[in-house]
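Record type: monomer structure entry
Structure origin: computed from sequence
Chain ID: A
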Amino acid sequence: MTVEVRPASQFEDVRALLGPKSPQANVCWCLSYRIPSKLNRELRGPARGEYVGELLRSGTPPGVLAYEDGEPVGWAAVAPRADTSFARNRKIPHVDDLPVWSLWCIRVRPGHRGKGLSHALISGAVEYARAQGAPAVEAYPLDNGDARVDLTMAYPGLRDNFERAGFTHAADTTSVLSGHPRVLMRLDLR
């Protein structure tokens, strides 16, 4: 198995990971934390994919993709926190005024899970942020201990995976997802 993680720049590859099976379906497209709440509610069905297409055409990749033998199999959303709703989120604290990047979504396609792709995605997202000048990367994973997590709700990642990637606990949050608290983890890149 050959895995390569690189900035997401090809719409069809992003669509393979984030897009719906039915073009009219209303799926996240990993926009929920990227855009203001009002716009998030207004964008429905195909308009969500069109918005992602515009992001890609702007030349700023909205995240990274993992490719296994050339096939897109994983996604991680990463961007400057100032460009996300985390800049205004009352449940996720700001540790300081450092212009950190946020890594908030990790997705691995069914049939490719259990191969360490989430670790490769975290590492690839960090390297992408570092290449863009990020002084640090934050993540807001579930602190699930040994409890099982519904895969649908595991998108923020798990605390253990971020600890293995060198992130440290920076703060508790008041955010809870699928019954599990979320913690703020940070990796300093300076």
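Annotation 1: The helical segments are 11-18, 37-42, 46-57, 117-131, 159-164.
Annotation 2: The chain has a mean pLDDT of 95.
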